[in-house]
Amino acid sequence: MGSSAGAGSGEFHVYRHIRRKEYSRQKWIEEHAKKEDEEESYHTKIAENEKEAEERTAKKRAKRLKKKGLRKVKKPKQSDGATGKDTLPEENSDSEENENLVESKSSRIADSQDDDPDSIVGIVHDKEVEGHIT
Description:
two-stranded antiparallel ribbon; 71% helix; 2 strands; rod-shaped
């Protein structure tokens, strides 16, 4: 006696085909999700590296500008023997550096208690160059 309620032998191939398609679809979904995660982590790492590079650059830029400003402040005036005029370092249009120079020169004026005429002439000459003398 045979069974009349079961699936026939032809239905197994249809079931196997549907099962294979479902496994393939799940595999594609997992690969796609993994690829998206890798891309996201890659972009996050790139952004982080750019941020760190910008921070390093900003730190070095600040150090370089600070060193440049100190070099201008500390640079001794060179006297030209033939003309008798003092030569000054090049002026930078950067307003912060000019303010720092003005503050350092004004503190030099306050600190100088002796009446050395050479230092007074140098300070007056500095102010004339900066346009503070009226």
